[in-house]
């Protein structure tokens, strides 16, 4: 019997039909319209994939879960059905990869080739290069934590953590990133993860079908409604614009593409399209295209089989999903819910087609090499340690030191202060630029002395800090008072004339003005801390409320003529991201301009709060200082003074915590190393990456890279984990030294005594 | 989609009814009260502006939609619980303009259901406001056009906080539009697939002939 004499039989996989569905049902519905008499066989790997009950399927081929399947046997079974003239359309990415690998030349397998899959692999998606689309910036997680953290800061912690197959986690800070890294890595049995910048915009897609490099048809879909997970719920179908269609045809030809595909994109406010994914299968909304008169699965089968499909007319360009109940197939009784577990839904519900199991299976077998080839995203690298730190470590005899011990890296500190001083002096012209050292960041006298030596101001938040700064030699005229507790614990000496006082509330501003009215010495600048409406903060005056803004304007009008007015803001760039910080800066200038225009009082001083990661301070902020000054003068022509608060930028790298190894535990999956340091000496351990060095037998300090190790503190506290994903040397043993760098800021000032009796 | 004759008559009647309506504008007291409110508004928009061409979504997060009393001054806006589409459009226009973009008032006629119209009539009448923006199943509406390239516009509906498209048909769709442009710089504006002559009401649905009034 020839192929044409056989009844048309099509195997369709990926039948899950939940809020994040696979395309199997959409493919089956489309094919049923075009081929009412075809045998449509639904294939899945779990009886929890509810699409097995969809009535368009003539029969169901339910497989055992991937973890149980003998893949060679299963492949031979698939080969039998393909050889018997049936077609196979996969709705599962990982299954597509496996099938392409197993049957590179079978004409009835309607999936792209291995080479084509390689060219659409995330995150680079090399095939996109001739399309008018960009791939959002990304970074493989094989790079050092230091570089990954820098990437996340750069993109304002609007980033996604993604794996090579499915799933993505939106991460907003370092703690979330580490959690997501562990989840994805465990679920998909791979370390080939990457972070990718989030693109703000509208979600759009292109679906196409092609046979042996010939683009049969394609549609454009604009999402009209999405689920909380961002999946399509409703959409509008239109034609693919010519500027995309022409290069797409060319690329499909180059890739010799066979099968369905979907390009998932985001259109930003400027109209730029960003390519997020290129899926090697039809999308789950494919029946929406059929409704609009574009039956892509039918075209594919028509081309592959030569059997003419029934044409369906366009019913509507728009489609939506609804929730409906259908009878379950009696031969596949619904399984009861799994045993309730307190904190989890379990894998079987989240990934009912068992893709994580297939991922694990493939990783264990020879496919691993192949998967690695497809998803090659870089070699593992360790953080680079500045030469200056390594140089300074040579001056210590570590054997005589008691650990845990914070090491003050004098040369590193001096260089940070000196470089900052030089750049500031070079930029002081029209506007006087000053640096204010935040005492709270690290009140160590050695840092305060350095600040004093370089003529920096001292920013204090309590009277304790004021006393400390005065004791170091700061003049009151070099002191900036900030925060809600600046007058605590005693009232200030009325004779002191400070450099600047920034009030944290309208009440404080009113009180301060009344004090000045009574004749106490005024500061050079009296100002307010603004609470910008776009960020959540407990500090400053919430100018987003118009009544508060009006009251502020009234109070500013009452500031005595002897004092100049200033504004202060403080939202850490290390928390909100660099681009967002620069946007914030411009919005603060707009607020300052608004106050100036409405009160008639000139803004003479702007104080930019700290929270700068050292690399960002030296590599981003200081090089942009000139343009920051220009922008300030553009808004506030009367500006005289700009205060920069580097915060942790000057001190974070200047202290490292020396610890000794107490124990090395070799577990199956990872190494755990317990040291005599703890979160009591390193309270910021989980908030940002700390570079870690190991003192080798040859007396050389070497940076530790990524690995499967956990660095644990000495405390009997579950949270006492100093670092995760650390690559320890095999010969590490009890008594060895590790040095945890970047511990000079809040790790020092917020450290505490714990577990020492 | 082509218009039925009855619909065409209704829309033509509606255009006749509203063609002399000018786009809403906020007034300015010559005292500090309005200056403060205006400067505050500009700073607020600057705070929430992500991309310069991003819609000023924050406006609707601040105010509900509903009847407003006219005339209205800048200093009064903040005290109101509800703003009508005209004020929302005026605010959105101001936001775009202060970002340095070219923005125009947009007047629309939208098609809804008679039940909707009855609901809105009740709402406006209970606020002692004449529901003269309603006719049969049609509603007068205001939005804001912004030039994003040459003479190409996007239209932001600040009441719904969405960009709208001429391709939408049926319930809620714009059936006629007028973009008010001062000066002679733009002879035609392009709104996706639709060419619009400024300052003239244009039907957005094919009528088999010249739909302009």
Give a description of the structure.
The complex is a heterodimer of chains A (757) and B (213). The model of chain A has no long low-confidence stretch (mean pLDDT 92). Chain A is built from 23 helices and 31 strands. Chain A has 3 domains: 9-128 and 201-335, D-amino Acid Aminotransferase, Chain A, domain 1 (2-Layer Sandwich); 387-407 and 653-749, Lyase, Ornithine Decarboxylase, Chain A, domain 1; 428-650, TIM Barrel. In chain A, the strands form 5 sheets. In chain A, strands 15, 25, 26, 27, 28, 29, 30 and 31 form an 8-stranded mixed β-sheet that branches. Chain A is globular and about 105 Å long. Chain A is an alpha/beta fold and 757 residues long. The relative contact order of chain A is 0.09. The longest helix of chain A has 22 residues, at 578-599. With 213 residues, chain B is an alpha+beta fold. Chain B has one domain (5-203). Helix content of chain B is 31%, strand content 23%. Chain B is built from 6 helices and 11 strands. Chain B has helices spanning 5-18, 32-48, 58-62, 74-77, 85-98, 114-126, and strands spanning 64-65, 82-83, 103-111, 134-135, 138-149, 152-157, 162-164, 174-179, 189-191, 194-196, 202-203. In chain B, the strands form 3 sheets. In chain B, strands 3, 4, 5, 6, 7, 8 and 11 form a 7-stranded antiparallel β-sheet that branches. Residues 208-213 of chain B have low confidence and may be disordered. Classes of the chains: A alpha/beta (757), B alpha+beta (213). The interface between A and B is medium-sized, with 26 and 21 residues.
